[in-house]
Amino acid sequence: MWIIPRCHQYNDLLSSKDGHTKLKRVLKAWVTSHPQFVYWQGLDSLCLPLSFLNFNDEATAYACFSTFIPKYLHNFFLRDNSAVVREYLSKFSHLIAFHDAELANHMSEINFIPELFAIPWFLTMFSHVLPLHKIFHLWDKLLLGDASFPLFIGVSILKQLRETLLSSGFNECILLFSDLPEVDIEQSVTDSIDIYCVTPRSITFRMHESESTLLEGALLQRHNQALSEFCSSLSSTDLLDLINTRFKKPKVLVIDIRDNEEYVAESIIGSINIPLARIPDLESTDLGSMESSPEMNILFNNKGSIIVIVGGEDSMRQAKFARFIVRLGFPKVTYVHEHVNSFECYGVLGPGIPS
Question: DSSP label at 313?
């Protein structure tokens, strides 16, 4: 296995013959001791900061590397890592859509997908695209967060580049990320923490995050189906937390898309009813074609709140309605898979108001 370092060669220590030798030994030790994994391009970039910080202690560099990878990059270095990477990038897309509907819509319209720019970010935890001094600052905070925190760092970087991205087409975006522009890393760290703190945990749930989060059967099928949707699904636990009025929680609006008869019979207390049949074209953003109603007025008055779409057994209907709301420019939109009736045992259901 030949390792040819490609980044941070401006650093005298890392570009030296001794630096190359030490890096190669740590990487060889890791690959040899983890036969289930293979060497992927970018592994050297990931190892370089740890090799630099422990330049005279290769055993510690190896130990840090061996601890870092399973926490933040579990199974990323399998020979076939396609399912792992696909899930990770899908959750990144979901997070963008949740926090910045306008940017998510624009990127979708020009077909500028995370696969085109974000793989080197996450595969190397940004060490391939940022200079060492910024990596050390970023990783100081990263190491305090959970396995989902890198996704929030990615969103914070896009936030800094937002205006440029919104005014750019596909080719301009490709050029922009061919050499990542200057990033204010302190601002990125601050924004990452802020975004993380207001995001329900299930928005970034990944079954490949660890061995303990693996799914099977119907749950696996539902999870994989949700990955292809534009918006992330929300767990029933997170929804119950959001609507629990005993605690100070982010403002939430629950929209029930079932027919009014079903809604009136039993629905989540405080939810509003906008039947799916009332929307003539879910692909349209022409507000003039939509039937005016008190419920639609409530929706538009709650822009900026967390909006949760609920309905019946077919969660595809909830997902489509959520995409429609995002297409209208609403951030913080999500949906639940479970039928409204499944919340009966939690004491949050009651009769709805007839329209």
Answer: S
- Give the number of other CB atoms < 10 A from CB of residue 347: 9
Q: What pLDDT digit, counting tens, does each position of 194-205 carry?
A: 999 999 999 999
Q: What is the pLDDT of residues 201-245, one digit of tens each?
A: 999 999 999 887 767 777 777 788 889 999 999 999 999 999 875
306 near 242, Cβ under 8 Å? Answer: yes
For the record, the structure tokens of 270 come out as: 């405080």
- pLDDT tens digits, residue range 147-179? 999 999 999 999 999 999 999 999 999 999 998
CA–CA gap between residue 257 and residue 15 (Å, rounded):
60
| Whether the predicted pLDDT of 247 surpasses 50 | no
- Cα–Cα distance between 9 and 310 in angstroms, integer? 52
| Residue 165: half-sphere exposure toward Cβ, Cα within 13 Å | 24
Distance CA 262, CA 264 (A): 5
What does the buried/exposed string (b/e) look like for 278-295 if buried means 16 or more CB atoms within 10 Å of the residue's CB?
A: bbeeeeeeeeeebeeeeb
Where are the strands (E) in the chain, listed by range? 252-256, 267-268, 272-273, 306-311, 333-339, 349-350
Distance CA 259, CA 298 (A): 18
Tokens 């057994």 — which residue? 313
CA distances to 113, 149, 156, 166, 198 from 185, in Å: 23, 15, 9, 21, 20
Dihedral of alpha carbons 47, 50, 53, 57, sign = negative
Number of residues assigned to the chain: 355
Alpha carbons within 13 angstroms on the beta-carbon side of residue 244 total 11
Distances (CA, A) of 29 to 24, 48, 61, 223: 8, 14, 11, 36
